[in-house]
Amino acid sequence: MNESTAVTYNAEENHVSEYEVWAKTLLPQIELLANESLLSYEYRGTGTVDGREKYVLNAAPTEQYRSDIEMSTTVYVDAETYFQARIDSEIRTEEYTHSSAIASRTSR
Q: 79's torsion region: left (phi>0), alpha (psi -120 to 50) or beta?
């Protein structure tokens, strides 16, 4: 990964993927998650991630930009600190499915 591009390699499929990176940190991701005009949330309950209790939320875009894309996002929020601990997302089209997980490190 450099300042503008991330490259991944899938050895099973012998396939290289290249993605444009918008910033050097996850701050834009957090700002996007906090923007209520872009995303709506549904509380799904609690779960355990890395041995700690988390609130589990489904996030959905408030507007669908393209009808051929299905998106799902699950956000895990630490029940004690209220910090975002993990984000699982999946984007599906007729051509591909892309899944990603972003996890925050804890000092505990």
A: alpha
